[in-house]
Amino acid sequence: MNPAEAQAVGESLYASGFRALEVPLNSPQPLRSIEILRSTLPADAVVGAGTVLSVEQVRSCHAAGSQIIVSPSTNINVIKETVALGMDSFPGAATPSNAFDAIEAGAKNVKIFPAEQVGLAGFKAWTSVIPRNIRLLPVGGISEENMFEWAEAGATGFGIGSSLYKAGRSLDDLKKRADKLVDAYRTIHEMRKSA
């Protein structure tokens, strides 16, 4: 996403039901996009930064208005700075050991990344040892077709990437994809409530 499209993309995703949006730091002018989303979306929209690799980036994202920090790795210093600044940390973990390191550093959410590599069987094993109060969110290869499998395995949320947004996609295409993902998520939520 770039700043020129941030408001339109954010409003479209919000209208479809997304309440948390991540701007990857490897996108054009990401801090400006974060500022735009924070100033144009309703107050219940959570805007965050992704692909955050350093403490300096955490501070820059916080200054731009980021509310969450998403990382591809378990960088203890990034987690601690994120928590110290009052933001939620979503560190990436590829093993249960990574996840426990993240939890010890203060993370309440763990991004299972890459989820495709961990696999459903591996993820199920994680859920037997990770404390239940920790949110586990698979990222990487998640789509409306496989969300149910991951939810049954214990996922408490999802990080959605290219199955939702890619540069050059029309807003109509984005909305169709967003609607399908939100419908799948709501179905999962309703199934859990009735169980």
Features:
single chain, three-stranded parallel β-sheet, alpha/beta, 195 residues, 50% helix, globular, TIM Barrel
What do you see in this structure?
The protein is of the alpha/beta class and 195 residues long. It has a single domain (3-185), classed as TIM Barrel (Alpha-Beta Barrel). The protein is 50% helix and 13% strand. It contains eight helices and seven strands; from the N terminus they run H-E-H-E-H-E-H-E-E-H-E-H-E-H-H. The chain has helices at 3-16, 30-40, 55-64, 76-84, 96-104, 115-127, 147-153, 171-194, and strands at residues 20-24, 46-50, 68-70, 88-90, 92-93, 109-112, 135-138. Helix 1 packs across helix 2, helix 1 (3-16) packs parallel to helix 8 (171-194) and helix 3 packs parallel to helix 4 (76-84). The radius of gyration is 16 Å and the shape is globular. The termini are far apart.
How big is the Rg? 16 Å
Count of all domains: 1
Which strand order does the major sheet show? Answer: 1-2-3-4
Helix-strand topology string:
HEHEHEHEEHEHEHH
Largest sheet, if any? 4 strands, parallel
Secondary structure class reads alpha/beta
**Total helical segments:** 8
Q: Give the termini distance in whole angstroms.
A: 38 Å
CATH topology: TIM Barrel
Assess the beta-strand content as a share of residues: 5-15%
Percentage of residues in helical conformation: 40-55%
Spatial shape = globular
Query: What's the mean pLDDT score?
Result: 97
CATH architectural group = Alpha-Beta Barrel
Spell out the CATH superfamily: Aldolase class I
Topology record:
Layout: H1 3-16, E1 20-24, H2 30-40, E2 46-50, H3 55-64, E3 68-70, H4 76-84, E4 88-90, E5 92-93, H5 96-104, E6 109-112, H6 115-127, E7 135-138, H7 147-153, H8 171-194
Parallel strand pairs: 1-2, 2-3, 3-4, 5-6, 6-7
Helix pairs in contact: 1-2, 1-8, 3-4
